[in-house]
Amino acid sequence: MLLPNLVPNRLEAGCDEVGRGCLCGPVTAAAVILPEDYANEWINDSKKLTKGNREKLTEEIKANSLTWAIASATVEEIDEINILNASFLAMNRAIEALKIKPEFLLIDGNRFNPIHDIPYECIIKGDGKYASIAAASILAKTYRDDLMANLAVDFPGYGWEKNVGYPTKSHRLGIKEFGPTPHHRQSFKLLPE
């Protein structure tokens, strides 16, 4: 069972992002504030869950959280400011979109660059330790996976409905055969030498 909060009786928002290692599409982040007494044994790091479980939990999280938000940084922004800064941008956008201002942030990972005065702590593998970070990882992944599956309809041949933009063999074969799309990150090495 993941921990509810770092400190009891404090409004803590968990924040996580997905899509940093992808060759295309936005980087997407979510921020979630869960009630302190909320517990769900199924909530865990989104990568450890099946697609079906993530989709069920997305509805559960949205219905039971005090507030949640999802935000992205575009491919153009990724190419302009680099993927790390674009990840921070997406996280900051998600945090700012929350309907309740958190008193503290639990950030998944080892670095963060805030644009606000909310205190925070970076937690490596936080999506396997804190329920709010895991909930944020589930919302961000479900949202981004759906987006990439929808883009795959207009851009067949890259396998986005399955690989969601990650550098798989089928994705790289698509780039080789059809060239990059407007959704590909030009600053990334799309094909190996």
TrEMBL record:
SUPFAM superfamilies associated with the record: Ribonuclease H-like
Single GO MF annotation: manganese ion binding
Q: Which residues form the RNase H type-2 domain?
A: 10-193
> Is the keyword Phosphoprotein assigned to this protein?
no
Q: Which family does it belong to?
A: Belongs to the RNase HII family.
| Enzyme class, spelled out | hydrolase
Any GO BP: mismatch repair
Q: Which reaction does it catalyse?
A: Endonucleolytic cleavage to 5'-phosphomonoester
Protein's UniProt name: Ribonuclease HII
Which superkingdom does the taxonomy of this entry point to?
Answer: Bacteria
Q: What PROSITE patterns has UniProt attached to this entry?
A: RNASE_H_2 (PS51975)
**Where does this protein reside within or beyond the cell?**
Cytoplasm
Q: Does the keyword Disulfide bond apply?
A: no
Q: How is the cofactor bound?
A: Manganese or magnesium. Binds 1 divalent metal ion per monomer in the absence of substrate. May bind a second metal ion after substrate binding.
The UniProt annotation places a divalent metal cation binding at D16, E17, D108
Cofactor dependence: Mn(2+); Mg(2+)
Mention any one GO cellular component term assigned to this protein in its UniProt record: cytoplasm
Gene name as annotated: rnhB
Identify the PANTHER family for this entry. RIBONUCLEASE H2 SUBUNIT A (PTHR10954), RIBONUCLEASE HII (PTHR10954:SF18)
Quote the function comment for this protein: Endonuclease that specifically degrades the RNA of RNA-DNA hybrids.
Alphabetical UniProt keywords: Cytoplasm, Endonuclease, Hydrolase, Manganese, Metal-binding, Nuclease
One of the Pfam families matching this protein, by short name: RNase_HII
